[in-house]
Amino acid sequence: MKKHIVSILVLSILFISCKEKAKEEKTETATKTATEQVADANYTVNSETSLLNWKGFKPTGMHNGTVAIKSGSLEVKEGALFGGDFVFDMTAITVLDIPAEDDGNGKLKSHLESKDFFDVANNPTATFKITGVDGNLITGDLTVKGVTKSIQFPVVLTTSSTGIKLSGETFKIDRTDYGIEYKSQKFFDNLKDKFINDEFEISFEVNASK
């Protein structure tokens, strides 16, 4: 009987000890996660792993592609995004929804580079400069074709294996604000279903390191 009681006591002690250890490990993990934050520093954008995505719409379908991020920097203070700027390489605009070997891909790319859209010959870059940060919303000046407008959109700042990652959730921009009026219903009548939506979608991922 004594052996039986002793066995029960030993099992109880072991169970309590394991439970307390698991609780301590859980608390330690939670504390580590809660206190982990982005290190304060000036980060340089990695142009090879950073990219802007675009998507345009029309009644008969849509097109999407990318624009290369040529250079940029991000400033972090007190664990949060404080400022930054980017330069976009408009000569590196791509079309993804049409196969690269298809003639339509080259035609659309050339049209986007023409004066109807981004006039890349005279405006090889576009820029964005952060002017304010409010929680996960950033405000900044976007300059396209020499026209600067203030825009605002949501972002997520996280740590990465090489530094930090700033992800821009999908937001919309009105192309006509930047003088891109081609087949816009604001400026042309009788387009029927041949118009192109004024708003296009943007999202991006910026990777940066110290």
How would you characterize the overall build of this protein?
This protein is globular. Strands 1, 2, 3, 4, 5, 6, 7, 8 and 9 form a 9-stranded antiparallel β-sheet that branches. The protein folds into 2 domains: about 1-35; about 40-210, Beta Barrel (Lipocalin). The protein has 2 helices and 9 strands; from the N terminus they run H-E-E-E-E-H-E-E-E-E-E. The model is unreliable at about 5-10 and about 25-35 (pLDDT under 50). The protein is an alpha+beta fold. The termini are far apart.
Number of structural domains:
2
Q: Based on DSSP secondary structure assignment, what is the total number of beta strands?
A: 9
Helix content: 10-25%
Low-pLDDT residue intervals, each spanning 5 or more residues:
5-11, 25-35
CATH C-level label of the largest domain: Mainly Beta
Radius of gyration: 26 Å
The residue-averaged pLDDT reads 88
Oligomer: single chain
- State the helix count: 2
Largest sheet: 9 strands, antiparallel
Helix-and-strand structural type:
alpha+beta
CATH fold title of the largest domain? Lipocalin
Q: Strand-and-helix sequence, N→C?
A: HEEEEHEEEEE
